[in-house]
Amino acid sequence: MGPDHRPQLIEMDPPDHTKLRRSVVGEFTVARLAAWRPRVQEIVDEAIDALLAGPHEVDLVEALSLPVPSKVISELLGVPYADHHFFQESSADFSRADTTQEEKAAAVGNLKAYITGLVDEKVKSPGDDLLSRQLAAGTDPEDVRGLGFLLLIAGHETTANMISLSVATLLDKREHLTALRDDPSITLGAVEELLRYFTIAEIGAGRLALEDVEIAGTLIRAGEGVLGLTNTANRDASVFPAPDEIDFTRMARNHLAFGFGSHQCLGQNLARLELEIVLATLLRRVPTLRLAVPFDEIPFKVHGPNYGVFELKVAW
Question: pTM for this one?
């Protein structure tokens, strides 16, 4: 079975899924990622240095939101950052709502071919990176290709969307920006609340009922399909009072922005780390940051698998 046909981690069921997830989950523990904090801080500072050295009006997506997670996931996986334009554009083609099925298939095929070549090189010349460690631990190379494909896509675009949405909201709702700048100790809570509020991956994995089951008074019959709407769950007033309001003091860690259960996002702790560092550093280093266009003129990604913005013009 070739790499184009091997099921991805997100599509697998136990016991294959359990085995493969267990092999890689240790790479994303809070303790393991603590060692990455200084490097993530360096990457963020380098991006802000470049931003401040140029014109005083930029598209923050291109200047910060995309470069930071792209560079972090590249270094973590052992992907050459010089190839970031290729994998960013291919990922965008795959996820955009206005691309044809043929274009999506071509983007997936190009990414899989790229990861296949990369893993084949690491079989011959391993490095100090996640993919090489998986190979050294005996993980099947085809499974490593699947991991690489999944983590490369999920590891940069979703975090980039969250960075842009978070900054846009803070610049529009200045009271939240002021609260965060005046009390950096609430940054972690702010990250969780922003993740809950936006829930950029709005639809969870589909499920098929194998037998009749009643959930919250609704009967789901055997054979019926079910979609978990994570954005709806994260606006459940019985769990999050005043759910349509942003409240950085609420304890929102029990949100479902990263999913739940066996398919919960592997990289959630890495995403939290990046968001925490980006928000704290950007507000500290660019205190006069402001939106360069009215909030209602920001081009939002309202169609497609992930919510976000196409462009975020800011000035200072």
Answer: 0.90
